[in-house]
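Continuing the series of single-chain predictions for the mutant panel. This is the parent chain; the variants come on the following pages.
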Amino acid sequence: MAASSATSVPVFKLYGETQHWPTPDLLHCESIPERSQLHNWIIRPHRHADLVHILFISQGSVELALEGTNHQLQGVVTIIVPAMAIHGFRFSPDVQGHIITLAKPLADHLHGLIGESSTLKKADFYRLPLSSQNGGNQPARIATLVSQIDQEYRQPATGRDRLLEALIQALVVELSRLSTAGHPAKRYGPRQSDKGRQHIEHYQALLEAHYREQPSIEALAEQVGVSSAHLNMLCRQIAGHSALQLLHERLLLEAKRQLTYTNMTIGQVSDSLGFSEPAYFTRFFKRNTALSPREFRLRQTAVNEIAK
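Parent structure:
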Protein backbone atom coordinates (compact mmCIF):
# COMPACT_ATOMS: atom_id res chain seq x y z
CA MET A 1 0.00 0.00 0.00
CA ALA A 2 1.40 3.39 -0.90
CA ALA A 3 0.09 6.57 0.65
CA SER A 4 -1.41 9.03 -1.81
CA SER A 5 -0.63 12.71 -2.08
CA ALA A 6 -2.08 15.03 0.54
CA THR A 7 -4.82 16.41 -1.68
CA SER A 8 -6.15 12.97 -2.72
CA VAL A 9 -6.04 11.16 0.62
CA PRO A 10 -9.59 10.62 1.95
CA VAL A 11 -10.51 11.91 5.38
CA PHE A 12 -12.41 9.41 7.55
CA LYS A 13 -14.35 10.25 10.69
CA LEU A 14 -13.74 6.82 12.20
CA TYR A 15 -11.95 3.61 11.28
CA GLY A 16 -12.64 3.25 7.56
CA GLU A 17 -15.85 5.30 7.66
CA THR A 18 -16.92 8.79 6.63
CA GLN A 19 -19.76 8.96 9.17
CA HIS A 20 -19.93 11.42 12.04
CA TRP A 21 -18.38 10.53 15.38
CA PRO A 22 -21.04 8.01 16.49
CA THR A 23 -21.03 8.47 20.25
CA PRO A 24 -21.08 11.14 22.95
CA ASP A 25 -18.01 9.42 24.41
CA LEU A 26 -14.59 10.87 23.64
CA LEU A 27 -13.27 7.33 23.25
CA HIS A 28 -14.29 4.54 20.89
CA CYS A 29 -13.07 0.95 21.21
CA GLU A 30 -13.62 -2.07 19.00
CA SER A 31 -11.83 -5.25 17.99
CA ILE A 32 -9.76 -5.06 14.82
CA PRO A 33 -11.56 -8.01 13.15
CA GLU A 34 -14.92 -6.43 14.00
CA ARG A 35 -14.63 -3.79 11.29
CA SER A 36 -11.66 -4.72 9.12
CA GLN A 37 -13.29 -7.95 7.94
CA LEU A 38 -16.11 -5.81 6.51
CA HIS A 39 -13.46 -4.20 4.28
CA ASN A 40 -11.80 -7.47 3.25
CA TRP A 41 -9.08 -6.83 5.87
CA ILE A 42 -7.85 -3.75 3.99
CA ILE A 43 -8.19 -0.16 5.19
CA ARG A 44 -6.78 2.00 2.41
CA PRO A 45 -4.52 5.00 3.14
CA HIS A 46 -6.44 7.86 4.70
CA ARG A 47 -6.16 10.30 7.56
CA HIS A 48 -8.23 11.86 10.33
CA ALA A 49 -8.22 15.56 11.06
CA ASP A 50 -9.32 15.21 14.68
CA LEU A 51 -8.86 11.61 15.84
CA VAL A 52 -5.98 9.58 17.28
CA HIS A 53 -5.74 5.79 16.86
CA ILE A 54 -4.05 3.38 19.25
CA LEU A 55 -3.86 -0.16 17.83
CA PHE A 56 -2.85 -3.16 19.90
CA ILE A 57 -2.29 -6.35 17.89
CA SER A 58 -1.84 -9.55 19.88
CA GLN A 59 -1.87 -12.06 17.02
CA GLY A 60 -1.49 -12.14 13.26
CA SER A 61 0.22 -9.64 11.00
CA VAL A 62 -0.35 -6.27 9.39
CA GLU A 63 1.15 -4.40 6.49
CA LEU A 64 1.25 -0.85 7.80
CA ALA A 65 1.42 2.19 5.52
CA LEU A 66 2.46 5.13 7.68
CA GLU A 67 3.35 8.57 6.34
CA GLY A 68 4.52 7.22 2.98
CA THR A 69 6.49 4.17 4.16
CA ASN A 70 5.45 0.51 4.43
CA HIS A 71 6.20 -1.93 7.26
CA GLN A 72 5.52 -5.64 7.68
CA LEU A 73 4.67 -6.23 11.35
CA GLN A 74 3.92 -9.51 13.09
CA GLY A 75 3.35 -10.67 16.63
CA VAL A 76 2.56 -8.34 19.52
CA VAL A 77 2.59 -4.77 18.17
CA THR A 78 1.24 -1.37 19.16
CA ILE A 79 0.73 1.37 16.58
CA ILE A 80 0.12 5.06 17.31
CA VAL A 81 -1.55 7.13 14.59
CA PRO A 82 -1.87 10.82 15.53
CA ALA A 83 -4.25 13.28 13.93
CA MET A 84 -3.46 14.06 10.27
CA ALA A 85 -0.96 11.22 9.84
CA ILE A 86 -1.61 9.31 6.61
CA HIS A 87 -2.04 5.62 7.37
CA GLY A 88 -3.47 2.40 5.98
CA PHE A 89 -3.62 -1.26 7.00
CA ARG A 90 -3.70 -4.68 5.36
CA PHE A 91 -4.46 -7.19 8.10
CA SER A 92 -4.07 -10.96 7.97
CA PRO A 93 -7.41 -12.77 8.44
CA ASP A 94 -6.17 -14.32 11.71
CA VAL A 95 -5.46 -10.91 13.27
CA GLN A 96 -6.54 -10.34 16.86
CA GLY A 97 -6.43 -7.08 18.76
CA HIS A 98 -8.19 -3.78 19.37
CA ILE A 99 -8.26 -0.28 18.01
CA ILE A 100 -8.92 2.55 20.44
CA THR A 101 -9.85 5.88 18.90
CA LEU A 102 -9.60 9.12 20.85
CA ALA A 103 -11.48 12.28 19.90
CA LYS A 104 -9.15 15.27 19.74
CA PRO A 105 -10.40 16.91 22.99
CA LEU A 106 -9.46 13.78 24.95
CA ALA A 107 -6.16 13.33 23.11
CA ASP A 108 -5.22 16.95 23.79
CA HIS A 109 -6.23 16.59 27.46
CA LEU A 110 -4.03 13.51 27.88
CA HIS A 111 -1.15 15.14 26.05
CA GLY A 112 -1.44 18.12 28.39
CA LEU A 113 -1.42 15.88 31.47
CA ILE A 114 1.56 13.80 30.38
CA GLY A 115 3.55 16.56 28.69
CA GLU A 116 5.98 16.41 25.81
CA SER A 117 6.85 12.79 26.58
CA SER A 118 3.29 11.88 25.50
CA THR A 119 3.24 9.55 22.54
CA LEU A 120 -0.06 10.81 21.14
CA LYS A 121 1.46 13.28 18.66
CA LYS A 122 4.05 10.89 17.24
CA ALA A 123 3.31 8.44 14.45
CA ASP A 124 5.03 5.34 15.75
CA PHE A 125 4.93 1.57 16.18
CA TYR A 126 6.47 -0.83 18.67
CA ARG A 127 7.17 -4.53 18.36
CA LEU A 128 6.70 -5.78 21.91
CA PRO A 129 8.69 -8.67 23.34
CA LEU A 130 6.88 -11.36 25.29
CA SER A 131 8.47 -10.03 28.47
CA SER A 132 10.08 -6.79 29.53
CA GLN A 133 13.37 -6.50 31.36
CA ASN A 134 12.65 -3.14 32.98
CA GLY A 135 9.83 -2.49 35.42
CA GLY A 136 8.13 -5.84 35.18
CA ASN A 137 6.16 -7.20 32.24
CA GLN A 138 5.20 -4.06 30.35
CA PRO A 139 3.66 -5.85 27.33
CA ALA A 140 1.34 -7.76 29.68
CA ARG A 141 0.37 -4.52 31.43
CA ILE A 142 -0.45 -2.91 28.09
CA ALA A 143 -2.51 -5.93 27.03
CA THR A 144 -4.40 -5.86 30.36
CA LEU A 145 -5.19 -2.15 30.05
CA VAL A 146 -6.47 -2.59 26.49
CA SER A 147 -8.66 -5.50 27.61
CA GLN A 148 -10.04 -3.49 30.54
CA ILE A 149 -10.81 -0.52 28.30
CA ASP A 150 -12.65 -2.81 25.88
CA GLN A 151 -14.69 -4.44 28.66
CA GLU A 152 -15.60 -1.14 30.30
CA TYR A 153 -16.51 0.45 26.97
CA ARG A 154 -18.83 -2.39 25.98
CA GLN A 155 -20.54 -2.84 29.36
CA PRO A 156 -21.35 0.59 30.78
CA ALA A 157 -21.65 0.77 34.55
CA THR A 158 -21.61 3.33 37.34
CA GLY A 159 -18.50 5.48 37.13
CA ARG A 160 -17.76 4.34 33.56
CA ASP A 161 -16.58 7.76 32.36
CA ARG A 162 -14.11 8.13 35.25
CA LEU A 163 -12.77 4.62 34.93
CA LEU A 164 -12.31 4.87 31.16
CA GLU A 165 -10.41 8.13 31.61
CA ALA A 166 -8.15 6.53 34.24
CA LEU A 167 -7.52 3.45 32.10
CA ILE A 168 -6.70 5.38 28.94
CA GLN A 169 -4.41 7.69 30.90
CA ALA A 170 -2.55 4.65 32.26
CA LEU A 171 -2.30 3.18 28.76
CA VAL A 172 -0.88 6.38 27.30
CA VAL A 173 1.68 6.53 30.13
CA GLU A 174 2.79 2.96 29.35
CA LEU A 175 3.06 3.74 25.62
CA SER A 176 4.91 6.97 26.33
CA ARG A 177 7.45 5.00 28.35
CA LEU A 178 8.13 2.95 25.24
CA SER A 179 8.59 6.18 23.32
CA THR A 180 11.18 7.55 25.75
CA ALA A 181 13.05 4.29 26.41
CA GLY A 182 15.19 4.37 23.30
CA HIS A 183 12.91 1.92 21.53
CA PRO A 184 14.29 1.02 18.09
CA ALA A 185 11.08 1.77 16.19
CA LYS A 186 11.33 4.62 13.71
CA ARG A 187 9.36 7.76 14.48
CA TYR A 188 7.54 9.91 12.00
CA GLY A 189 6.91 13.32 13.48
CA PRO A 190 4.77 15.91 11.71
CA ARG A 191 6.24 17.18 8.49
CA GLN A 192 7.71 20.46 9.64
CA SER A 193 7.58 21.87 6.14
CA ASP A 194 3.85 21.26 5.78
CA LYS A 195 2.52 24.70 6.58
CA GLY A 196 -1.03 23.67 5.77
CA ARG A 197 -1.05 21.04 8.49
CA GLN A 198 0.45 23.49 10.96
CA HIS A 199 -2.28 26.01 10.13
CA ILE A 200 -4.97 23.35 10.67
CA GLU A 201 -3.43 22.33 14.01
CA HIS A 202 -3.43 25.99 15.07
CA TYR A 203 -7.05 26.37 13.97
CA GLN A 204 -8.10 23.23 15.86
CA ALA A 205 -6.37 24.48 19.01
CA LEU A 206 -8.26 27.78 18.70
CA LEU A 207 -11.51 25.88 18.17
CA GLU A 208 -10.95 23.85 21.32
CA ALA A 209 -10.26 26.99 23.34
CA HIS A 210 -13.11 29.13 21.99
CA TYR A 211 -15.85 26.96 20.43
CA ARG A 212 -18.33 27.87 23.19
CA GLU A 213 -18.07 31.51 22.10
CA GLN A 214 -18.93 30.56 18.49
CA PRO A 215 -16.35 32.98 17.04
CA SER A 216 -16.50 33.98 13.39
CA ILE A 217 -14.33 32.07 10.93
CA GLU A 218 -12.84 35.40 9.83
CA ALA A 219 -11.66 36.13 13.38
CA LEU A 220 -10.18 32.65 13.77
CA ALA A 221 -8.47 32.84 10.38
CA GLU A 222 -6.89 36.14 11.38
CA GLN A 223 -5.44 34.50 14.50
CA VAL A 224 -4.09 31.63 12.39
CA GLY A 225 -2.50 34.20 10.08
CA VAL A 226 -4.34 33.34 6.87
CA SER A 227 -7.43 34.59 5.04
CA SER A 228 -10.78 32.94 5.74
CA ALA A 229 -10.86 31.69 2.13
CA HIS A 230 -7.43 30.07 2.50
CA LEU A 231 -8.40 28.54 5.86
CA ASN A 232 -11.54 27.07 4.30
CA MET A 233 -9.50 25.62 1.44
CA LEU A 234 -7.05 24.02 3.89
CA CYS A 235 -9.87 22.63 6.04
CA ARG A 236 -11.56 21.06 3.03
CA GLN A 237 -8.31 19.59 1.67
CA ILE A 238 -6.92 18.27 4.95
CA ALA A 239 -9.95 17.77 7.20
CA GLY A 240 -12.61 17.09 4.58
CA HIS A 241 -14.94 19.81 5.90
CA SER A 242 -15.18 23.57 5.86
CA ALA A 243 -13.88 25.60 8.79
CA LEU A 244 -17.46 26.28 9.89
CA GLN A 245 -18.37 22.59 9.72
CA LEU A 246 -15.46 21.76 12.02
CA LEU A 247 -16.72 24.34 14.50
CA HIS A 248 -20.23 22.89 14.29
CA GLU A 249 -18.95 19.33 14.80
CA ARG A 250 -17.17 20.39 17.99
CA LEU A 251 -20.31 22.10 19.27
CA LEU A 252 -22.38 19.03 18.40
CA LEU A 253 -20.01 16.68 20.22
CA GLU A 254 -20.16 18.79 23.39
CA ALA A 255 -23.95 19.05 23.14
CA LYS A 256 -24.22 15.25 22.94
CA ARG A 257 -21.94 14.84 25.95
CA GLN A 258 -23.89 17.30 28.08
CA LEU A 259 -27.25 15.81 27.10
CA THR A 260 -25.97 12.32 27.95
CA TYR A 261 -23.90 12.86 31.07
CA THR A 262 -25.40 15.89 32.85
CA ASN A 263 -28.77 16.96 34.22
CA MET A 264 -28.55 20.38 32.55
CA THR A 265 -31.77 21.57 30.96
CA ILE A 266 -31.82 22.03 27.21
CA GLY A 267 -31.84 25.77 27.83
CA GLN A 268 -28.74 25.50 30.01
CA VAL A 269 -26.96 23.40 27.39
CA SER A 270 -27.90 25.98 24.78
CA ASP A 271 -26.53 28.83 26.90
CA SER A 272 -23.31 26.99 27.72
CA LEU A 273 -22.58 26.52 24.02
CA GLY A 274 -23.14 30.12 23.03
CA PHE A 275 -26.53 29.87 21.35
CA SER A 276 -28.69 32.98 21.62
CA GLU A 277 -31.84 30.98 22.38
CA PRO A 278 -32.84 27.33 22.94
CA ALA A 279 -34.98 27.24 19.78
CA TYR A 280 -31.91 28.03 17.66
CA PHE A 281 -29.93 25.32 19.45
CA THR A 282 -32.75 22.80 18.89
CA ARG A 283 -32.82 23.57 15.16
CA PHE A 284 -29.03 23.25 14.96
CA PHE A 285 -29.04 19.93 16.81
CA LYS A 286 -31.90 18.42 14.82
CA ARG A 287 -30.38 19.51 11.50
CA ASN A 288 -27.19 17.60 12.35
CA THR A 289 -28.62 14.51 14.09
CA ALA A 290 -32.23 14.20 12.81
CA LEU A 291 -33.26 14.22 16.50
CA SER A 292 -34.28 17.03 18.79
CA PRO A 293 -32.13 17.44 21.94
CA ARG A 294 -34.98 15.98 24.01
CA GLU A 295 -35.35 12.95 21.70
CA PHE A 296 -31.59 12.38 21.77
CA ARG A 297 -31.50 12.51 25.58
CA LEU A 298 -34.42 10.08 25.89
CA ARG A 299 -32.71 7.66 23.50
CA GLN A 300 -29.42 7.83 25.41
CA THR A 301 -31.24 7.27 28.71
CA ALA A 302 -32.93 4.18 27.25
CA VAL A 303 -29.60 2.84 25.95
CA ASN A 304 -27.96 3.34 29.35
CA GLU A 305 -30.86 1.60 31.13
CA ILE A 306 -30.59 -1.42 28.82
CA ALA A 307 -26.84 -1.60 29.47
CA LYS A 308 -27.29 -1.76 33.26
